[in-house]
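S1.2 Input.
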Amino acid sequence: MINQADLRCPDCGETERFRVVSNGTTVLDSDRGSSICESDFDESATIECLACDNTDEVGIFDLVSQQSRCDLCGRFTHEDHGQGCGSCDGYLFPVDFFTADAFTEPQGR
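S1.3 Output.
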């Protein structure tokens, strides 16, 4: 199972609010008037970022494997750094580069 703490939207960087299509089980108890819901999902499940509406597979949102980020559009990607961004004219840098004190967040050109 994927941990929510390991998820980040590759488009906007959101880490808190997602909608995931998952397999679930619900136990209904009419005597107690309650239900217990359990769900599970894997890397192939569909996920939607509630901040920007980006939709893809959970594996694409896995921040552990997001190794690069575009300096222009800010998109996170699994692609190797040192090449052009597939979404714009920007350039891919290692994700760690963006946490350096000397770097400011991408503002667009």
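S1.4 Remarks. The chain has no helices and eight strands.
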